[in-house]
Here is the input.
Amino acid sequence: MTPARPRVLVIAEAANPEWVSVPLVGWSLAMALRDVAEVHLVTQVRNRDAILRAGLEEGRDFTAIDSEAVARPLWAVARVLRMGEGRGWTAVQAINALAYPAFERGVWRQFGAAIRAGRYDIVHRVTPLSPTISSPLAARCARAGVPFVLGPLNGGVPWPAQFAAARRQEREWLSYLRAAYTLMPGRGATLRHAAAIIAGSRHTASEIPASHQAKLLYLPENAIDPARFARIAAPVPGPLRACFIGRLVPYKGADMLIAAAAPLLRDGRMTLDIIGDGPMMAALRAQAAEAGVTVTFHGWVDHARVQDVAAGCGILAFPSIREFGGGVVLEAMALGLAPLVVDYAGPGELVTPATGQTVPLGDRAAIIAGFRAALARLADDPAGVQATGARARMRVLAQFTWAAKAAQVARVYDWVLGRAVEKPVLIDDMGSARQGGDDVAV
Here is the structure.
């Protein structure tokens, strides 16, 4: 007899179908899990209207917790501390760590009795993704005898020492103190009482104490919706066509890409499209003009239309030196683009030798030289670019759609419920990546 689908209370403080980044991860995973479990989503009230517009029924499908009395003034402080939109991410997470407990207290007030009564088989906290934010619910669920699943957790990738200037430009002052979170009250209890801990990156996995490795699983948090990325790359014959997609800020490396590509652009061996906007736009235009090369700057493009530009290219050239998840890399791979990335953090974990190329992390000069050499090789091998892009697309469709992600998490649910004896391996990296125990601690 097939076991009944588990009843799961999904806690996603950030879950919004109309936003990007973490709120879109929270929303997408929660919705995908509805195909493998009986899910009730609990989120923060700021997401309520967007979720209603998406067609969910409040009370039946989701509950919105109003913690605005605490969250609103603290987020006002965060806007000041970050000193610019899109900057000071560590400061934002520090403020979120102060605001979040009020949200979980609201969750327990509303659902504590139901959890204790056994009306849910599992409680799964999907967001916050940050491993620095503890969860009082973990201990409460453990006392109630209900497995608590934590994650995916991701964040805190160290700033490369070679890019200290970019760190300062991003207003990442608090990142120098980030390691202190391991001493914060509640972290040990959260990890101790969790039935399973899902790490979204190998760096995050390495921060989980050895005493909890037996319940640690590796699963990158990003995925794609094939309906939103339905195009297939079809670059026109001729020179190598490359694109960059991202915010135009120092650590994303668009300036390094232009410097690396300049000889090939001048020789007509490649073209370059830069999709995105940000404070470096004027400087990048000036850099291209000074180098005497043509670069197509598209500026800000609506997320749904990015694929329309990218699908005309053969590769994604993305020399970012600090990406937690690297969702843009998966999106490009889903279109059939061959990725060229720095071998560090999220992108370095998503790209295998069969599905793209990586350049070792180094200083600015080393990355430019590495990208220049890789671009030259790719320009001389159009058939290889196309074949790599096809393999990249197959990998994403097999393991990195939201449906695949839900199936992977369902295996975690079976394990914590005792329906499976062995801890599951969730990602097959074609032999290049392993999961669990010491294998993920890097």
Notes: Confidence is low (pLDDT under 50) at residues 430-442. Residues 89-116 form the longest helix (28 residues). The domain at 7-223+402-437 is CATH 3.40.50.2000 (Rossmann fold). The chain has 16 helices and 13 strands.
